[in-house]
Every structure is written in C-alpha cells, then in structure tokens.
C-alpha cells in the first residue's frame, strides 16, 4: 500500500546537497525485523534565472500639460524564476539636461508577476512645446539579460489650450466574442486638448468590408485630460463560427486640432462553442400525490442544451420503498432542435399499487452518445401514494429553466424556474434561488401569489452576473418556502452550472510601417511591422518578411496579452525600378485566428535625380506618402506626387502649428518627388526629439502626415 505522510517536506534552498532518506515500520511483535528499514539517497538541484525588466511607462503620458503634477509610474515585471528585490530608476530630461530622477525599491516580486513602480511627484515645467525624454531602468545584481533592463519613452509638454479628442480603445466587444452573445458597445474616448469638449462618436462593425452594424453616441462636456465611455446600442454577435469582424470608430469634433488620431481601427474574433448535450428538465406526470389503483400517464420534459439536432432515448423507472422496480419504460425522442424543449409521453401508463401512505421514487434519465454534460441527464424525485382523499398542502419546483448548464465568465444570465402546486389548496408562498460554490455567490427570493391546485407558474429571479473565474462548478438550488407544506421531499430542486472562460492563442499583424509605398533605388530601408497579441497567453513566435528575393526572420519573445510591439528586419534595398511585393507572415502554434497572421503590400521602386523621379506615367492623383526612415535620427526623405501642375509647398510644423522648416516652395509639374530633411529648423539648428507634422499644399489641396524625431 502507498503511505502518504501528513507533513510535507520543504526542500532547503541549498544547491547540490545529498540527503539520506530512512523509512521504518513499527509493528510490535514483527516476526522479521530485518526488513523493517529502507534507506535511500537523493540530491537537490537549484536552477534559477534572474531577469527583471521595465515593460511600460504609465505616466507621464504622451502629452502632459504645463504646471500639472503627477507621480511618474512604470510597470516592471519579473521574467526570471525566483522572487526578486531590486531598484528601479526613473529619469526625465530634455535636450540632454536632467530635470528629474528618482529611485524606488521593489521587494520580493514573484516570477511572472508585474507591479507598478511609483516614484516621487514631478511637476511639468511651465514651458510650451517641450519634448521630455523618459528613461526607466532596473538594477538587479545577477540579471542574466541586461538588454531589457532599460525602457525609453517621450512626453510632449503643452501649455496652449487646444482641442483634441480621440478614441483610445474599444471596451466591448473585446478581442474575442462568442456567437449569439450581446452587450452594449462601448468605446473609451479621451480629451487630450485643453478645453471642455462635446462631440459625437461613430462606430461601425464590418465583415469582409461589408458594414453589418453601426451607431452614433454623444459625449458631453468631457474635461481636458479626462476619458469616458461612449455607450452605443447593443450588438448581437452573429452565429458565424471563426469570423473576424472589423471595428472602426471615430470622433466628430469640427475644431479638432489633431485629426490624425480621430480614427481607431481594430477587430474582434467571433467563435462558437458547439457541443452535444441533452438532459431532463423535470417530471410532468405522474403528479407528486397519486391515488391507489388509479392509472396515470408518465411524462417528462426534456431539453436540448447543445448545438445539434438530436435523437436520443429517455428511460423512466419507478421504485417502491424497498428499492424494487415496479414500473419501467423507454421511449425515443426524435429531431429535438438546439435550445428546444419537449414533453415526452411514454407509451405505458402506470397503475398505482393498492398500498396506502407510501412513497415511490421516480427516475428519468436520457441516453445520448457523446453527451458533453452528464450532470443534467438524470432527475429523480419522490411521489406520495394514498388510498383516501385528504387535504394536502404541497408546492415545489418542477424545472430549472435558466441559466443553461454552461455559462460564460463575465456574462449576465437569466435565472428562472417553474414551480407547481401539487396540493389541494390555493397557496401563497416564497421561492428562493441560491448559486454557490463553497460560499453563496448569488441569492434572490420571489413571491408566488394565489397559485391554484394543479397549476404551475414560471418564477423569474434577478439576473445573475457570472463571476470572471474559469472552470468553476456552481450549484443552483431553488427552494419553495411554504410553512404548512406536508411533503418536504419535493421542496428543493438543484442543478450544476459550469462557469467557463474561453482562452485562445492569437497574435497578428497590426500594420506594415516601412518601407513606404514608393522607394528610391540604391537607397537602404529597414522593413518594420507592428504586431499585437490579441490572445490570452504570453507568446513566443517567428515573423517572416519577404520582398521578391529578400527574406528575414525575427523571433518575438514573450509578447504579453494586449501588448503591441514594433519589429525591425534586416535592411533592404533594390537597384532595379519596378513593383515589389512585400509579405509578412506570423508563425504561431495553435493560433486561434489565422486571418490576421499575414499582411502584404506593393512597393514601387523609382529612379531619378534628387527631388524628382522620372517615371513612365503621370500620377492619377496628388498625394503625400509616409517618410522614411521614420523615426528620423540623422535624416529622412518625404515622398509626394503631383497630378497637375501648379504652385506647391512642403513644410514641417510642430504639434501646436508653428512653422519649423520650409522644404519646398515653387511651381511643380506632374510627377513624383521627394525632399530630404535633416531634422533642422529654419536657422539650421537641430530640432528636439518629438512628433512633427509635415504638410503638402498643391493649389487648394492639402495633405499632412506625422513623423517622429529621435535624438
């Protein structure tokens, strides 16, 4: 026999230690003591990796307001295998001048855990248009990977009040939604300007570029720096398995100073959890009280909880108080639709034995091959047989109608049950419903008024918000509370309910950020893409980039759920003009949504001299292309095309609209052009790090884009 000792043994934190193990049996009068002792040895081994890193700068945000104050905050995580105690340093500087530095100590951060490192308060200087460089680094002796110990960021200081609102993220639907589920659609919007703002927010949901749902909500008096939920009507997810829905939301503020951030584009993945599951709802007949030598029909309500049309057997057995089967019958239920119930009537009626004041056990159970949930297959209860008419006070629950046997985390479900008056008197009584695991998580009581003998009624309880814990077994209990009830055995009905949270693997490509759509031959570009983890697990995967003969593979390591990252590939260039197809593919094992794993675009390589490309065709329309490289470190090229001759200008501005650099002014003919900017202002001085706007004006037409300067 295996013997398990009651006290566990904590292995000491000592590496390469040999331990002796001695086990002895102690039996008084043992006839063979020579085999009473067993001796063995074992060795301990400690394999620890120490690695901590900053992963996100929480505050300061991208834009801060002059004279405002806050606590610089950064999220740090323990990527190692043992708890770690370490210092974290937060530094703020501008143009190489340090303005702020503070250190905090993080104590006993467990492996795989993340915490906020909160530093002392910092007040933003009262200087307009300043770019602040943010740096956070961890200091852990023995850190095995120092490449991730430092995290940089930038924040823009702004004093002039301006108007800027934008959608930040879609609250619901999330990255994954279940077929036939519904909720109010909500988008988080932010007032990044300096004035109160009232504006409309539009959202539309599409599949395969066809809009299937849209709505508009109004946000009123949103204060500067605040955020709010724009709440739309409910959307019900279509019953289409493994479908990606595009979500586009945009703000409508006529005087918005920064329209480039007014639109948010994301997606959600719809899937259907389909099972075979039938069960017994409850006994319909015979009633709870029967008369001797009377003939009663045998009927039961059955339910198809699953997702398929089902044929299955239902068996009924009736036993006396000695456990002897006195009646048994089987019937076949044919073609029961999903989410449908039916009253099944057996072919054989039951004649009650001539035995006064006795109880009978009635059991119904369903038989379906491959049934997902056996807990709802059987219902067994008691009925009372008597041989002379008496006054009976008896009510009880017959069927638990809702919720279904499986519910999804964080959903809100209907709770209802069917109760019946089995007695001979009209009754007034309460009905109680409780959901519990080890402790109650839900309770409600409703009153039933004037229920006549033999009648039944559906009792609707308050809706139940399902907790967000995965794989939890709940017990739902419905109890009738009638003080004068003479048959307590049928007062309570219970069923199990399983709480389930759907978790998936899903990483995809957000955007191709470089090279631009048009490139110059004999120039070198760094292909870059943005990838996002829409799933529920930290993921490590390969991402492959190909451009007609060029290919490179980069491994992304431990990308956290909900996080995006920028991926650079090896430099690429071409010496031949023409069209090139750039394709990017993610390779993730068990990816739950393959539709976002690939992205591609066509790159036009052109030839010519500085500022003008000589191409065999005239552009069909004027336009402004994304600069490259972006961010600008030493220099960048800004590409644009002109469809008709006329006066044109290309200028660079800061975020508050001040002119920084004139790149071109003059008359242009139709064609393709580029301008080189080395990150200097009109006086030739280098501009500070930050975000800048470059604007092309051709006649009455205007176009603008953002670029980033990183020093």
UniProtKB/TrEMBL annotation:
Family matches, as InterPro entries: Ig-like_fold (IPR013783), Secre_tail (IPR026444)
Entries under Gene3D superfamilies matching the protein: 2.60.40.4070, Immunoglobulins (2.60.40.10)
Superkingdom of source: Bacteria
Protein name, as recorded: T9SS type A sorting domain-containing protein
Originating species: candidate division TA06 bacterium
Organism placement in taxonomy: Bacteria, Bacteria division TA06
């Amino acid at each position: 026999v295996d013997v398990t000792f009651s006290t566990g043994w904590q292995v000491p934190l000592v590496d390469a230690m040999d331990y002796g193990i001695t086990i002895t049996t102690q039996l008084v009068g043992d006839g063979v003591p020579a085999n009473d002792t067993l001796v063995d040895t074992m060795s301990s081994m400690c394999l620890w990796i120490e690695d901590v890193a900053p992963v996100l700068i929480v505050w300061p945000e991208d834009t801060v307001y002059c004279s405002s104050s806050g606590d610089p905050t950064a999220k740090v995580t323990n990527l190692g295998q043992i708890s770690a105690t370490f210092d974290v340093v937060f530094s703020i500087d501008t143009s190489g001048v340090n303005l702020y530095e503070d250190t905090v100590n993080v104590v006993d951060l467990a492996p795989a855990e993340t915490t906020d490192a909160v530093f002392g308060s910092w007040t933003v200087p009262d200087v307009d248009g300043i770019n602040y460089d943010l740096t956070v680094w961890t200091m852990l002796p023995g850190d095995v990977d120092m490449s991730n110990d430092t995290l940089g960021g930038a924040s823009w200081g702004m004093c002039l009040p301006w108007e800027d609102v934008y959608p930040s993220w879609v609250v619901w639907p999330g990255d994954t939604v279940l077929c036939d589920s519904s909720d109010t659609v909500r988008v988080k919007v932010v007032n990044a300007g300096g004035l109160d703002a009232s504006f409309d927010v539009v959202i539309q949901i599409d599949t395969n570029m066809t809009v299937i749902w849209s709505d508009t909500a109004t946000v009123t008096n949103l204060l500067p720096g605040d955020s709010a939920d724009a709440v739309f009507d409910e959307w019900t997810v279509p019953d289409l398995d493994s479908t990606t829905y595009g979500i586009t939301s945009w703000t409508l503020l006529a005087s918005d100073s920064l329209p480039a951030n007014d639109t948010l584009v994301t997606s959600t993945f719809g899937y259907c959890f389909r099972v075979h599951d039938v069960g017994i709802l409850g006994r319909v007949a015979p009633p709870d009280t029967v008369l001797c030598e009377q003939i009663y029909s045998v009927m039961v309500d059955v339910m198809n909880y699953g997702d398929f049309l089902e044929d299955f057997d239902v068996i009924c057995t009736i036993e006396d108080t000695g456990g002897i089967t006195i009646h048994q019958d089987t019937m076949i239920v044919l073609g029961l639709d999903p989410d449908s119930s039916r009253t099944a009537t057996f072919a054989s009626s039951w004649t009650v034995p001539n035995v006064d004041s006795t109880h009978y056990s009635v059991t119904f159970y369903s038989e379906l091959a491959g049934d997902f949930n056996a807990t709802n297959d059987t219902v067994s209860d008691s009925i009372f047989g008597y041989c002379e008419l008496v006054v009976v006070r008896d009510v009880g629950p017959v069927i638990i109608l809702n919720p279904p046997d499986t519910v999804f985390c964080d959903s809100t479900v209907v709770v209802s049950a069917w109760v019946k008056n089995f007695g001979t008197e009209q009754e007034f009584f309460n009905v109680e419903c409780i959901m519990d695991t080890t402790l109650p998580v839900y309770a409600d009581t409703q009153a039933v008024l004037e229920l006549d003998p033999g009648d039944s009624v559906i009792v609707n309880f308050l809706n139940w918000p399902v907790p967000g814990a995965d794989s939890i077994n709940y017990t739902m209990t419905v109890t009738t509370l009638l003080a004068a009830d003479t048959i307590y055995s049928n007062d309570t009905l219970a069923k199990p309910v399983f709480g389930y949270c759907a978790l998936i693997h899903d990483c995809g490509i957000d955007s191709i950020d470089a090279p631009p759509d048009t490139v110059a031959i004999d120039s070198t570009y760094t292909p870059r893409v943005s990838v996002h983890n829409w799933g529920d697990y930290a993921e490590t995967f390969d991402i492959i980039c190909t451009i007609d003969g060029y290919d490179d593979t980069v491994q992304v390591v431990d990308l956290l759920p909900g996080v995006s990252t920028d991926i650079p590939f090896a430099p690429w260039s071409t010496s031949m003009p023409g069209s090139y197809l750039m394709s990017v593919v993610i390779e993730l094992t068990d990816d739950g949504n393959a539709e976002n794993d690939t992205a591609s675009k066509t790159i036009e390589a052109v030839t010519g001299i500085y500022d003008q490309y000589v191409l065999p065709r005239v552009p069909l329309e004027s336009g402004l292309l994304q600069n490259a490289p972006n961010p600008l470190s030493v220099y960048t090229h800004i590409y644009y095309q002109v469809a008709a001759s006329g006066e044109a200008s290309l200028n660079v501005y800061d975020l508050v609209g001040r002119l920084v650099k004139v790149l071109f002014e003059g008359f242009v003919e139709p064609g393709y052009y580029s301008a080189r900017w080395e990150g200097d202002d009109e006086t030739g001085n280098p501009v500070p790090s930050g975000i800048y706007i470059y604007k092309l004006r051709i006649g009455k037409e205007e176009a603008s884009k953002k670029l980033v300067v990183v020093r």
